[in-house]
Amino acid sequence: MKDEFSFIRSIQPKGHHQPTVVAGIGDDAALYDSEEGFHEIATVDTLVEDMHFTKETMKPFHIGYKALAVNVSDIAAMGGRPTYYLVSISIPKSGSWSEEELKEIYRGMTELADEYGMDLIGGDTNGTNDKLVVSVTVMGRVEKGVRLLRSNAKPGDVVFVTGPVGSSAAGLHYLLEGHRCPDIFASAHQMPRPQVGAGRVLAKARERVALNDISDGLASEANEIAEASGVTMEIDWLSIPHELQGEGEDRIEKWTLYGGEDFQLIGTAGEETFAKLERTFHEKGLSLIRVGRVIKGKAEVYLVKENERSVLHKRGYNHFNKGD
Ligand code: ADP
Ligand code: MG
After folding, report:
1. Which ligand minimizes its atom distance to the CA of 8?
2. Which atom, in ligand 1's list, is nearest to the CA of 24?
3. Which of 8, 64, 201, 316 is deepest in the core (most CB within 10 A)?
4. Residue minimizing CA distance to atom 27 of ligand 1
């Protein structure tokens, strides 16, 4: 890269979507107004080369898109709308990443940001000895009083998810194998869709809902809700939605339960609330799928399969450390 300053200029947005931005990129820090009647939401996630992505399985555009998407998903899991993002990028001194590739990373982020009217308002540019590191911070907003917390689950609740799981893990598998990867799996892995629309419906319902996004796999995220709420959850194997028809049972089980990175939402709500939510989701063309129930007991998750009940442990197989 020629110099950092021309790079920053090249990725600086021309204008802003959000009217609350006072000063974005170009000063010591960004200045923005909050909006009355809203909570601010903040989240950060980092993607490390060869840990969370490789050049073999992701184009620079995808890396940018996904780095932003994983954060937007956390905003969705709080029921919010994303507003701003900041990017810290650490670039290998070896020159293994060209300026063109780095700009493509930003183009991938812009693609998703424009969809939600998000603004890039700052960041940091650094060097590393070895791998590329992209850390993205996202801010968002949700109406005051909305708390879609993991600790909200109660015995008697329905457990739901907002869409198919396991496709991203299937994508990673086929991309790493070097086989032709079916498009739906490749895009699930490279350009996951955060479920902001679903999160917004859940926030606007103004009901008690526990919510979590599925970044580390259904098993792991269900356990997080069970732990935070101090309840037992039962997941019905046959009700888990997936797009893996034709794959072997072992793979379907591994990918749907432990795959992760699908960024669907998993949550719980009382029966009556769930019935109402189902109608609203349906009207909006969104899906809400019942996958189990919350019962009284220790903080544990069970998988119910052919009338057998087995403990679902909190393990994922992310970060290229497949550990099956
Ligand atoms: P400072 O030394 O005050 O931190 P910098 O030179 O690091 O200033 O950054 C100048 C401006 O460019 C700041 O507004 C900063 O937020 C922004 N910026 C720097 N690097 C990036 C980046 N990689 N992506 C987006 N914005 C960046
Ligand atoms: Mg700086």
Report:
1. 1
2. 14
3. 64
4. 123
Residue 26 CA, closest ligand 1 atom number: 14
Q: Ligand 1 pocket test: which of 125, 128, 134, 136 has the largest number of ligand atoms within 8 Å of its C-beta?
A: 125
pTM for the full model?
0.94
Give residue 25 CA to ligand 1 midpoint distance, Å: 7
* Domains of the chain: residue spans and CATH: 4-143 (3.30.1330.10), 150-311 (3.90.650.10)
Residue nearest to atom 22 of ligand 1 (CA): 123
Helices (H), the chain: 4-11, 60-76, 99-116, 167-177, 183-190, 196-204, 218-229, 249-258, 271-283
Q: Which residues of 50-88 are buried (b: 16+ CB within 10 A; e: fewer)?
A: eebbeeebbebbbbbbbbbbbbbbbbbbbbbbbbbbbbb
Residues 159, 237: Cα–Cα separation, whole Å? 13
| 88 CA: nearest ligand 1 atom | 23
| Closest ligand by atom to 26 CA | 1
Question: What is the CB < 6 Å shell around ligand 1?
Answer: 8, 11, 25-28, 87, 89, 120, 122-125
Helix 218-229 vs helix 249-258: crossing angle, to nearest 10: 40
Using the CB atoms, write b or e for 219-230: b if 16+ within 10 Å: bbbbbbbbbbbe
Ligand nearest to the CA of 1: 1
